[in-house]
Amino acid sequence: MCAIAGAVGLRVDADTEGRMLGTMVRRGPDGEGVFRQGECCLLHRRLAVIDPRGGAQPMELRWAGERYVLVYNGELYNTDSLRRELEGLGHRFLGHSDTEVVLHAYAEYGEACLERFNGIFAFAVWEAGRGALFLARDRIGVKPLFYMLHQGGLLFASEMKTILAYPGVRAELDETGAAQLILMGPGRLPGSGVFRGMQELESGCCARFEGGRLQCRRYWKLRDREHRDSFEETAQRVRELVTDAIRSQMVSDVPIGTFLSGGLDSSIISAICAGEMAKRGERLRTFSVDYRDNDRYFQPGKFQPNSDGHFIRVMEETLNSRHSWTVLSPQDLADCLEEATIARDLPGMADVDFSLLAFCREIRRDVTVALSGECADEIFGGYPWYRDPEVRALEGFPWAQNTRTRASLLGENLRARLNPGEFAMEAYRKTCRESDILPGTSPRERRMKEMVNLNFAWFMQTLLDRKDRMSMYCSLEVRVPFCDYRIAEYLYGVPWEYKDYQGQEKGLLRYAMRGLLPEEVLYRKKSPYPKTFDPEYERMMEGWLRQVLDRGDSPLEALVDRGALEALLSEESPWPWYGQLMRRPQTMAYFLQLDFWLRHYGVRLVF
User: In this predicted model, which residue has the larger pLDDT, 139 or 569?
Assistant: First the structure.
């Protein structure tokens, strides 16, 4: 994994180059490269995972009369088969990096190369003779790619902070950005970078910048199709797809490990990885996070029925892995609040981000690559809002049924400019309208496909943002096998009654992977990423937010109603702020992040 950036149609002097590269060091600590041609400048920082001695970037290739220059962030999991295909067409390779394969594939197939890639990626190719830049992002949106049209040119980068380092680019917030922070945060509109003028190339999209014009198009989306496989055939196909995705994502020239929570998804990944490594006479490294005194303070509830410790120990013994624990205190979480905000360039999921940042920092001491279980719930229907008919029937984002509460927090100026309910509802309805659903689909199946698309476009993107930024801030590459697009494409057409086999969340996945895990882990009731229940953490967040409000100079007061925010200090909302985990302590931490973000980035309000 790496960091990429560039400017076309703009001047980049040595000082600007240094500032932009400086923002990229954490994503790429192993080296840097620069390409210049006229008003094109491409920048790269490398985290070496495949072919450490080769694979340097920007990478150049002369082919069929054109000179191609590539900067690439990602991993291609079908590199070997593509290399053989290209060699058959006359291409010759100097190393064994996937970067070189991506470059040759683009030279051979042009934009159609995207249809051949199975991986997670964001890249840019400069066609020197034509004077055109091509940008692309993977189908699911695992790797980030932001851009901004500026003074007739184009800036792009893996992270927003790199674009903000360019002279004349201001950190500005208009009413649409502010509305996202209060009414949707930590989610954001697809394609939005929240800062005014900042955009994100959406997942499954590519773009071309030529002659001062940018044209974007979607090359992939979930398409509905008739499902003809029986339940048994479906389960067998799921097992094949999941197993192949995990195995293919183990490729690395540096040490790898897995996140292990004792839940279904991470346990499946860890079990398959452990089996593959055992064939080579190696032991898998597994990693878990917990909180100080969690056995004392844990509170079982609807969304978090049990803690992870027992199930992690069961898997550790089953796998015979080399296991490491990271145990965090409330102070450890608080200490990461500002760093996590900088890592994400936006307020995030509060201590769910803070703990992941601290956890990734510890993992990076032992491995450079780790596999994680993100996105199985979106694809297999594991979240409570998939399975609760009452929540399912409600209009609006099912993980944030609190628009009225959020709207009450808007400052007077913003409230006068916005229709809060309509702002959120139109974004929700647009995603539902764009869902590809076959004619004649039953009302229940139609709703379930809308739910999948809502989760893909919104909730899953928030989680992928979180995992990418927190891990790459620590120079740790995290791979997410359940994001293999083949799994997503196949599962989209699978009927809900299969996915909900025996009325259990992810019932199909459990049935498909039977025999792989101990029964108590295979059928463990879903429990999300762990959070702390320590009352000390809640007291810390409350005291910190009280200090911010009492200070009297917080930029928060230009966005939010002070009285409504103070009420947050004493009341627990009936709905979580976001998802399952952001209750009162996390919501207070979110507003602390927002206060820090406004100050640290010097955000100028333009409404």
Answer: 139
CA 47 to chain centre: 18
Q: Are 130 and 137 in contact (CB under 8 A)?
A: no
For 558-607, write each residue's pLDDT tens digit.
999 999 998 887 888 777 889 877 889 999 999 999 999 999 999 999 99
**Displacement of CA 501 from its chain's centroid (Å):** 28
If phi > 0 it is left, if psi is from -120 to 50 it is alpha, else beta; for residue 139 that is alpha
User: Taking a C-beta distance cutoff of 8 angstroms, is the pair 262, 311 a contact?
Assistant: yes
pLDDT of residue 300: 60
| Distance (Å, whole) CA 399 – CA 571 | 20
pLDDT at 295: 77
Buried b (16+ CB within 10 A) or exposed e, 408-430: bbbbeebeeebebeebbeebbee
Average pLDDT, the chain: 94
Helix (H, G, I), strand (E, B) or coil at 288: strand
**Which residues, listed in sequence order, are joined to residue 200 by a DSSP beta bridge?**
146
Q: How far is CA 230 from CA 3, 236, 237, 486, 497, in A?
A: 44, 10, 10, 18, 12
Q: Indicate the pTM of the whole model.
A: 0.96
CA 292 and chain centroid, separation: 27
Q: Dihedrals φ, ψ of 549, to 5°? A: -70, -40
CA distance 152 to 372: 41
- H runs (alpha helix) in 66-158: 79-87, 98-109
Partners of 35 in the β-ladder: 42
| 232-236, 396-400, 542-546: range with lowest mean pLDDT | 396-400
Confidence of residue 305 (pLDDT cuts 50, 70, 90): low
303: pLDDT strictly greater than 60: no
Q: Which of 2, 40, 375, 483 is catalytic?
A: 2
Contact 128, 68 (CB under 8 A): yes
CA-based torsion, 322, 121, 137, 17: positive or negative: positive
CA 490 – CA 234 distance, rounded (Å): 9
> DSSP of 309-338, one letter per residue?
HHHHHHHHHHHT-EEEEEEE-HHHHHHTHH
189 pLDDT above the threshold of 90: yes
Q: What confidence tier does 302 reach under pLDDT thresholds 50, 70, 90?
A: low
Residues with Cβ within 8 Å of 144's Cβ and at least 6 positions away in sequence, in order, are: 122, 137, 158, 159, 200, 465, 468, 469
Q: What is the pLDDT of residues 109-133, one digit of tens each?
A: 999 999 999 999 999 999 999 999 9
Please check whether residue 234 is in contact with residue 347, taking contact to mean a CB–CB distance below 8 angstroms. Answer: no
Q: Cβ–Cβ contacts within 10 Å for residue 268, how many? A: 26
Tell me, yes or no, if 336 is annotated catalytic: no
49 or 257: which carries more pLDDT confidence? Answer: 257
Distance of CA 604 to the CA centre of its chain: 27
Please provide the size of the chain in residues.
607
